[in-house]
Specification:
binds 2-acetamido-2-deoxy-beta-D-glucopyranose; 5-stranded antiparallel beta sheet; 45 strands; 17% helix; 29% strand; Agglutinin, subunit A; 741 residues
Amino acid sequence: MAIRNLQYLCLFLSSISPILANAQTDNRIALGSSLLASDNSPTWKSPSGDFAFGFRLLDNQNLFLLAIWFDKIPDKTIVWYANGDNPAPKGSKLELTNDGQFTLNKPQGQLIWKAESVRNGVAYASMLDTGNFILANGQSLYLWESFKLPSDTILPSQVLEAGAKLNSRQTDNNYSKGRFQLQFLAKGDLVLNTIALPTDLVYSNYYNSSTSDGLNGMNSGYRVVFNESGYLSVIRRNGNLVNLTLGNIPSTRDSYHRATLDFDGIFTQYAHPKAPRNGTWDQSWSIVWYEPKDICFDMTGDYGRGACGYNSFCTLDSFGRPSCECLPGFSLEDPNNKFSGCKQDKVRKCDPGDSNPEELFEIHVVSNTFWPSSSNYERFPLSSEDECTRSCFSDCNCVVAIIKEGTCWKKKLPLSNGRLERNTYGKALVKVPKSDGSSEYPHSPNLDQGKKDQTNPILKKQKPTRGSSILETNIRSFTYKDLRDATDDFREELGRGAFGTVYKGTISSPSSSKEVAVKKLDKLLVYEYMSNGTLASFVFGISKPDWNKRIQMAVGVARGLMYLHEECSTQIIHCDIKPQNILLDDSYTTRISDFGLAKLLMGDETRTQTVIRGTKGYVAPEWFRSKPITAKVDVYSYGVMLLEIICCRKNVELERGNEEDIILTDMVYDYYKCKRLAMLVEHDEEARNDMKRVERLVMVAIWCIQEDPSLRPSMKTVLQMLEGVIEVSVPPSPFPFSSIC
Ligand SMILES: *[C@@H]1O[C@H](CO)[C@@H](O)[C@H](O)[C@H]1NC(C)=O
Ligand SMILES: *[C@@H]1O[C@H](CO)[C@@H](O)[C@H](O)[C@H]1NC(C)=O
Ligand SMILES: *[C@@H]1O[C@H](CO)[C@@H](O)[C@H](O)[C@H]1NC(C)=O
Ligand SMILES: *[C@@H]1O[C@H](CO)[C@@H](O)[C@H](O)[C@H]1NC(C)=O
Ligand SMILES: *[C@@H]1O[C@H](CO)[C@@H](O)[C@H](O)[C@H]1NC(C)=O
Ligand SMILES: *[C@@H]1O[C@H](CO)[C@@H](O)[C@H](O)[C@H]1NC(C)=O
């Protein structure tokens, strides 16, 4: 009992008094020290207590990982591990031997891991405050460093030399080697690639820093530096540096930083506040930077499973993360791992002589998908879609037929590197055994699990309600002819809305037929007189407009912008979104107007640089930094406007008494973080009775006004978040500084 109290006292002292702890030269671990793998095994901490070295219990397995982690935050995030492929059973012993070896052995004595190539003369070990664990000689010269053998993470002050590698882990909580790898190549490129597990054979790159120099090498990169201020860069031989992390980032004084090759293949720099704010840890790791920007698109090549597993296709979520879906008739190999690839739910015996394959199989259509050629085995010019379908039906090798650009391709399993892709009018016809009948061959016991969700993911997402356009679902695209046919040459008008007229139609696929509404866009956008003025006169007017009406308008504008960004054959960036440019008709339907500044972008020109346009207060920061201008500038302006709609006030109100309240976009994050949102709508009783929704809308707006354009969601995602189709995650601070509550 007495000893326990003493331990508590020590912990208490070191947590309130880091200076006292630092006063000891460092936390030297003497030769002969050891740690045992057990539930409450002690750890070796760095002087500040920021990092700890020791054993971590793996999920319910009685197996342990020898690791280094951030010790002061609730997540205890692991940044280095020794034995991911070979977890240590309980009772295993880590020992710094008297002759300077550093070894991990099973209870029975077999070696699990040892520090390799340690030079002679080790005098002590130490966990440093940088997160580096070192073995040093009597002169404190480092003879071995964990920083030289990174796992999946690097930390500020860590350097990657030529030949250095990071390997992803398998999944979030399985630390064995995953299939993604980061390498800093001797010729100077930092690349990401997949490997052919369990070997190290390298498949093609999906990211390349392009910092090598084909000429004499003088301009080639030779080190990757994650500097103490939290900036990652490649240093060239001539001393120039290529910034990887850009812009303002949270200060390393107040935030921990790490850059991790995540198990989904994305190399991500994260920041985490060092201390709780107002007693609570309201923030976890937030994303500072990542590459590649679109892993679904950048993952190419003929070998390997792609960003997702086999037989699934990839889409990006709003945080640039890959999200994988099985083809219809397939479900996940491992239901707990969406990257595990998909297997057929049912395999039906197929006989080339079957006279009526239509009775055994049905076709499910997945539109807008791109599949590389590696799984093709036959192609022929398409005379009709039916012919392509029939040909696949009567061919036992055919699992999927792709129709694209007048060609029918037949594909065999497994399919890899598939992705949903806008503007790819290719569609996949997936041949799926019909569920009735007798000659079914179950593939696995969990045959029907999740089947309902997996079947026909594309059609499932369409909500063809009256008045809403099928374009809103944004998953499936149609040609003009498809739509003209569907609406019987635009015969029955349902109504008129932003940008055009809505017609009734019917879309048929081999498996179903649905009533839809089709909106025909007016060729570029001629406006009739708007009887109810602009959103500005409405929202900033004298009497406060109805809360629900305001939300409806916010959603309406989001939808309109989404059309401009994504649905027009040529992408349109408006560049001057503000309430004065939103017109209202007599039913308060919103229409975006004043395309005076709009940029029309053709195909690959989606990033562009140009002189500043737009209106002060609504203009995204990248305009001022001569950064590329993308559709994300409209997302920023939309975020500002959304806040104005929520609060019924202008973004900038110089006449405000309290200086902190002058600029809405500057104050909103603090109000959100400190749970004072009610004050933003304090005179609005309807809104105050709907605080959950206020919070969600504010969170969306904060995402939209992120300083880093790549963190802002697309308008499609904004719309889905507003409509509650997808969750809104906790937004990071839109700028580097935010005060303490
Ligand atoms: C981690 O995944 C690998 C490969 O799938 C598997 O062999 C291993 O058993 C898993 N490890 C743990 C601790 O679950
Ligand atoms: C990376 O890109 C550069 C420039 O495009 C090229 O020269 C180099 O070969 C690429 N590196 C690898 C490993 O593919
Ligand atoms: C870190 O890198 C950034 C960007 O390259 C640079 O501005 C900053 O001065 C560097 N900080 C340190 C401490 O080296
Ligand atoms: C890298 O970033 C630093 C600080 O942000 C800046 O001073 C420097 O000019 C940048 N270098 C390049 C090559 O862009
Ligand atoms: C908007 O239009 C409605 C219907 O025409 C009308 O009753 C209302 O007064 C108008 N409001 C404004 C602000 O003009
Ligand atoms: C801090 O938290 C306390 C208790 O939760 C709360 O009463 C107080 O208002 C908070 N302070 C700020 C500035 O938000």
